[in-house]
Amino acid sequence: MPNVVVAIPTFRRPAGLARLLAALEKLETSAKMIVVVADNDAGKHEGYDLCRSLCAQYRWPLDPVIAEERGIAQVRNTLVARALSYPEAGFVAMLDDDEWPSPQWLDELLAVQAATKADVVEGSILFEGEGAPWAGGFDGLSSMRRPSGPIAMLEGAGNLLITRRCLEGLAAPWFDPAFALSGGEDRDFFERVKGAGGHFAWSDEGLAHTVVPERRRSLDWVLRRAFGIGNTEMRIFLKRHPGRAARLAEYAKIASALLLTPLLALILAVAPNRAADALRRFCRNAGKLAALLGLRYNAYAVTHGE
Q1: Is the peptide bond prior to 173 cis by the omega test (within 30 degrees of 0)?
Q2: Domain positions in the chain
Q3: Residue 155's closest CA among 125, 197, 114, 110?
């Protein structure tokens, strides 16, 4: 019977956190669970206070902590350190505070891990509600689903199962604090795991759900998100100290995209989805160029949701 720490980072989303905690009480699992919540708002600490009010009657042992240092990487590191302080915990499962799991979520992640022996398993995320008609397939606005089984690289830290062995095999901090407010700490973590010989898998049945806030359903948000993704992608690329040939190839891709995608957007103006996708690709490469110039985009300086 696996021992699992469910680790939840939270920041000024008490309503979302309450929904997530309620869903965890409805899990259908034989695993032994502990729920750790790290509140990254040391001032108001609404998430911490919510957990304290629930501890006595909650189905699972509930361990709220405050992550004093602001940043998504810092709060994830607080969670990992707390999880590893439980010697019986063989796995750490991560869910964000704007998500909630299906009843079979945890057992499905564990089943794929047992079948594949993967170091990290990611579950699918279903987006509830209608998105913009031009945003089909866009990151952050569309459901993330893949066939269950081994996969070369993962997408993000919103719905994960990580083995204790994997975390103990990496030097702390597990998530690079340099990505505190920019995001990208998850992709950097995956690159480190892969570099250490780790393997990944996907669980389509390990479902979590989320709702896209209204403020995200705009082309402006999509383009800013694309810029931020490109910015962090380039920072991660440069962090690995690539050789001259790899750098030149990446620079050529950026230059080509910046030159061609605006023209493509004009040509495809009659097809809103394809035109928006061309603009998204332009902004992603503009973000990469900004990183090359030493500029950093801090997407997590603003909180979305409640």
Answers
A1: yes
A2: 3-212, 216-301
A3: 125
Please give the structure tokens belonging to residue 33.
């669970």
> DSSP secondary-structure letter at 55?
T
Token reading at 82 = 């707390």
Shortest CA distance to 6 belongs to which of 124, 112, 90, 71? 90
pTM for the complete prediction?
Answer: 0.89
Helix (H/G/I), strand (E/B), else coil: 200: strand
d(CA 229, CA 226): 5
* pLDDT tens profile 177-228: 999 999 999 999 999 999 999 999 999 999 999 987 777 778 888 889 899 9
243-258 tens-digit pLDDT: 999 999 999 989 888 8
Q: Are 305 and 245 in contact (CB under 8 A)?
A: no
Residue 244's identity, in one-letter code, is R
Burial of 301 (0-12, 13-18, 19+ CB in 10 A): exposed
Phi, psi of 77 (to 5 degrees): -65, -40
Which of 37, 166, 159, 56 lies closest to 99 in space, CA to CA?
159
Residues 18, 22: Cα–Cα separation, whole Å: 6
Q: What is the largest CA-CA distance in the chain?
A: 61
Query: Which residues, 6+ apart, have CB-to-CB distance to 102 below 8 Å?
Result: 207, 208, 209
Tokens of 40: 């990254």
Say if CB 37 and CB 47 are below 8 A apart: yes
Q: Which long-range contacts (CB under 8 A, 24 or more apart) does 192-195 make?
A: 193/119, 193/120, 193/166, 194/153
CATH number 3.90.550.10 is the correct assignment for the domain at 3-212: yes
Contact between residue 61 and residue 21 where contact means Cβ atoms under 8 Å apart = no
* Beta carbons of 78 and 65 less than 8 angstroms apart: yes
If DSSP codes are grouped into helix, strand and coil, which group holds residue 120?
strand
